[in-house]
Amino acid sequence: MSEKRGNCAVTVGVSFLTGALIGAGVALLFAPVTGKEAREIIGDKMEDMKEEIKKLEEKLVHVKKNFKRESDGLEG
């Protein structure tokens, strides 16, 4: 049961990040901004994505530890 929740969390996280990247790209293509402004926006979005990836990584490590703990309990 925990494994399914962990996989679901990862899938949702990856889907969110993918959607955010696509949305940001489309917004930049249609936004009337200068090249400098666009680069600043991209830089800000990249920093946001890095933070989201770190959070997702931490959650994945937590899920992995819980799964390991549960599987060890089933074997012993």
Largest sheet: none
Instruction: Please report which band the strand proportion falls in: under 5%, 5-15%, 15-25%, 25-35%, 35-45% or over 45%.
Output: under 5%
Number of domains: 1
Report helical residue fraction.
over 70%
Provide the succession of SSEs: HH
Termini separation: 19 Å
Oligomer: single chain
Query: Which shape, going by the Cα principal axes?
Result: elongated
Structural class: mainly alpha
Mean pLDDT reading = 80
Radius of gyration: 18 Å
Number of strands: 0
Describe this protein with a few key phrases.
mainly alpha; 2 helices; 92% helix; 0% strand; 76 residues
Précis, in short:
The protein has 76 residues and is mainly α. It has 2 helices and no strands.
Describe this structure in words.
This protein has 2 helices and no strands. The mean pLDDT is 80. With 76 residues, the protein is mainly α.
